[in-house]
Amino acid sequence: MNAETVVLGSVEQIPLGEGRTFVVGDEPVTVFRTRDGRLFASSATCPHGKGPLADGLIGGTKVVCPLHGFAFDLGSGRCLNANGNCGDLRTFAACASPEGEIRLELPRQQGSAAA
Amino acid sequence: MKKRLVVIGNGMAGARLVEDMLSRGASERFEFVVFGNEPYGNYNRILLSSVLAGSHDPKDIFINSLAWYEQNGIKLHLGAGVTRIDREARKVYAAGDLVEGYDHLVIATGSTPFVPPLAGLKGANGTWKPGAFVFRTLDDCDAITAYGRGAKKAAVLGGGLLGLEAARGLLNQGLEVHVVHLMPHLMEVQLDPAAGSILGRTLQGMGVRVHLEKSTTGVLGDDRVTGLAFKDGSTLDCDMLVISAGIRPNVALGGEAGLTVGRGIVVGDDITSPDDPRIHAVGECAEHRGKVYGLVAPLWEQTRVLADRLSGKNPDAVYQGSSVSTKLKVMGVELSVMGAKEGTNEADEVATYADPARGVYKKLIVRDGLVQGAILLGDASVAPSLLQLFDRATRVPGAPADLLFPSSGGAPESASAADLPADAQVCNCNGVSKGRILEAVKGGCRSLKAVCDATRAGTGCGSCKPQVQQVLEAAAGDLVVDDPAAHYYVSGVPLTKPQLMAAVREKGLRSVSSVFRELAGGKEDPGSKAGLASLLKTIWGKDYVDERDARFINDRVHANIQRDGTFSVVPRIYGGVTSADQLRRIADVADKYQVPMVKITGGQRIDLLGISKENLPEVWKDLGMPSGHAYSKAFRTCKTCVGTDFCRYGVGDSTALGIAIEKRFQGIESPAKMKLAANGCPRNCAEATTKDLGAVAIEGGRWEVYIGGAAGSRVRKGDILCVVDTQDEVLKHMGRFMQYYREEARYLERTYDFVERVGIDFLRRKLVDDCDGIADRLDAAIQTAVDAYNDPWKEAEVPVHPSQFRTLVGAVAVE
After folding, report:
1. Is the pLDDT of residue B571 over 80?
2. With an 8 Å Cβ cutoff, are A64 and B528 in contact?
């Protein structure tokens, strides 16, 4: 598979229904843990005004930036109310392992060797 | 297998029903067949008069193009008149040997113009003489315009709404226009005699010749129209005639099929024929509880109910008739009418105002505190507020006559946004121009919420929403829909606040997630969480199950998030009275954490700005002061003036009262923030008269209690709730109002909007006179909330989660 999996530790680091940020390599990535137990991951700040998305409210598969209320679909990263004022998020596949650890899939850097 | 829904009629009712079905996802279970008489997609018939007047191009009045029908898989038979309904075989027959079977049939055949018997209307060949027209369709409009180019003098038969619209069109084309009306005044269906005569005078001033109480008996002319003959023997020369003498519902198809027919095809509250559960009728051809409606709003209520039932979204939806209100322009003259035009019983309060020279007439009929009817001619500035009172059956605040004029105490009514240029900024928070709003309306947004969602207008402080609504109404006219979601407490749960509170209590829902699970089909809406959390806390108090993810970030970390993601910290300084010791500790904290800005706030507090989330617990510990709650939808602060201890004018101890208020109500959650103040005398140095709640000491040792003041995006002087003798009584009445506001107001509705909405007289009766006997319960409920208070900054010692005050929780290296 053309992706690299990194393990970020226990899902319990993230309160239920909230998000927290991890620095992965040199990129801050926010992981969201929904009330029904799913994990989502995206770039950590809102493209509009750099609002911290980990501080946003989440519901279903949406997150709302705490600064100006731009909402994003966590699956696709698409901004749902941009109206030309805000870009989309970069998203990553994330899931919880059977042991309750956060597993994040990173796209392979170009040129890096495949195993 | 999909069911077949056949609609006879492609006008505003028929096409709207199909739209309503599609928006409810019914295309998965239904296929749609539509018969239309006219060879077009469907258009906004209301705007035909604007086409005639030349202010709209015909192509601009289409609601749905032919492509829309194709995209949605709707089978459309145009120009195919339906000839017969076979109920037994469930088939519809139309011209050209067309046959369509149905599972459900909707009759939306509208109406045809009524043509009174007129001698000489037809020529020798049996058809109408050239120059005689009715005014109903786009084709009629084209024919009138074409003939009008060669004409000089036109007569319009009928001085009702449609007749006057036709007159406006002809006047704009440069013709001399005569309106001939049978009745003693114009528009007698909507207007009382006084309004009708003022309108007549205004129209005469524009150049329309009005002939009242004229019974037309014949059309003159040999091979074309040259004049009219009247019953009184007089005649009028004219070279064209537009007949607009009323409409008759098209009921023949229903009658021939054996359905009960009165003036229209009779339907029950289920919008279904009592004779056949598969046949429905909507719009101008339908008769409900003895009424046939000719306006667009009732028609839309009918299609909404029918679509709810047929689509299965709400199989029990019922239509209970419409209260008729309408806003229109008659030849450019603003007119709003609602409900009754005359008082009907002695208890009715009737207020009228007439200014014939300016063409202004206003009338308001109030019974038992509710608006029964109103006429606003020539000045519609108060129409939105009256319409709201009428549509929602809200009690009238204050004296009825005052409602006829824009409030002098509130913000002055600015010039209508409809008159602004396109580049004018309407939303000053998000920088949205009128042009952007117009684009959104053109793109299909028809409700205030849809426009706001699409443009972000009105999503900042919200004070421009009335202007956005004005622009929307001016651009979309009667196509504007009242979004039911506008009445929900929060958008993600389809219930009004009373419905929601009842359901929450009945089902015992104590957490936000349980509300989504039980009342919103399991669908979590992030935008609704904070509102639900606030309401549940008010309802359940200590028994509320506090899920931290339902809180906005400010309430998770008890500080106010700033534009750079840092937070502001405002310690509680009761009544704004501080000490050298407190100031020293604040200064030490500012030094220790290198606080970028220390600021005195408008509420007489000290704000430490630019604190990182991780530092919050240590900052609070070092301050050793309780939270000032400068971040939540809750009681904020009570500003005070110096009062009696030092001030030479003070007549009441405002600092002591302010401290008592703040100690009692600190942290009390409410639908929106509450800012308070206490004044030691009427000089108002603490600005208590423009606070959500305020107390003002007056000579004689008494206190005035103000509610509903504002000095934010709007400025409003508060209303006096009561005047009391002691500080304890101030606290009691403030608490009682707060609890009532907590229970009754919409989420984010500030006290000044709430007080205006329900009315100060109503609040005085409820909360001071205790007319319903609820005061003791309210007093006990606010006491429970006061007793439940805990300083949230104590979470510095015991966080609710190890990462409560951390955003960044880990780092990994990547190869």
Report:
1. yes
2. no
Q: How far is CA B87 from CA B93, B101, B261, B275, in A?
A: 11, 10, 16, 10
- Alpha carbons B271 and B104: distance in angstroms, whole number: 12
Q: Any chain A CB within 8 A of the CB of B521? A: no
Please tell me the distance from the alpha carbon of residue A76 to that of residue B619, in angstroms, as a whole number.
Answer: 39
* CA dist., res. A51 & res. B715, Å (int): 31
Contact B328, B128 (CB under 8 A): no
For B45-49, which contacts have Cβ atoms below 8 Å and span 24 or more sequence positions? B45/B11, B45/B12, B45/B136, B46/B12, B46/B296, B46/B477, B46/B478, B47/B477, B48/B135, B48/B136, B48/B137, B48/B138, B48/B140, B48/B141, B48/B165, B49/B162, B49/B165, B49/B166, B49/B168, B49/B169
For residue B668 the two structure tokens come to: 């009390």
Option in A15, A49, A106 nearest B801 (CB):
A15
Beta bridge partner(s), residue B352:
B363
Report the alpha-carbon distance of residue B337 to residue B351 in Å, rounded. 15
Amino acid at B703: W
Mean pLDDT score, B493-510: 93
Task: Kindly report, residue by residue over B751-798, the tens digit of the pLDDT.
Answer: 999 999 888 989 999 999 999 999 999 999 999 999 989 999 999 999
Kind plus residue range of the DSSP H or E element containing B506: helix B497-507
- Coil, strand or helix at A64: strand
Q: Does pLDDT of B282 surpass 80?
A: yes
**Tell me, what's the pLDDT at A112?**
41
Average pLDDT, stretch B301-323?
91
Instruction: Name the residue with higher pLDDT: B452 or A8.
Output: A8
Residues B554, B631: Cα–Cα separation, whole Å: 6
Chain B residues close to A18, C-beta within 8 Å: 548-549, 556
- How far apart CA B276 and CA B210 sit, in angstroms, is 47
Contact partners, residue A90, CB within 8 Å, separation at least 6: A42, A43, A77
What does the alpha-carbon distance between residue A61 and residue A64 come to, in Å, rounded to a whole number?
10
Among A51, A56, A83, whose Cβ lies nearest the Cβ of B456? A83
Q: Do A16 and B549 touch (CB under 8 A)?
A: yes
Q: Pick from A13, A51, A62: which is nearest to B526 by CB?
A: A62
The C-alpha of A66 sits at a distance from chain B's nearest C-alpha, in angstroms, of 7
Q: How far apart are CA B681 and CA B698, in angstroms?
A: 6
Query: Which burial class, exposed, middle or buried, applies to B138 when counting CB atoms under 10 A from its CB (0-12, 13-18, 19+)?
Result: middle
Global pTM reads: 0.61
pLDDT greater than 60 at residue B456: yes
- Residue A79 contacts B, CB cutoff 8 Å: no
Closest chain B residue to A15, measured at CA: B801
Q: Is residue A108 over pLDDT 70?
A: no
User: What's the confidence (pLDDT) of residue B408?
Assistant: 46
Q: Is the dihedral of CA B84, B85, B89, B93 positive or negative?
A: positive
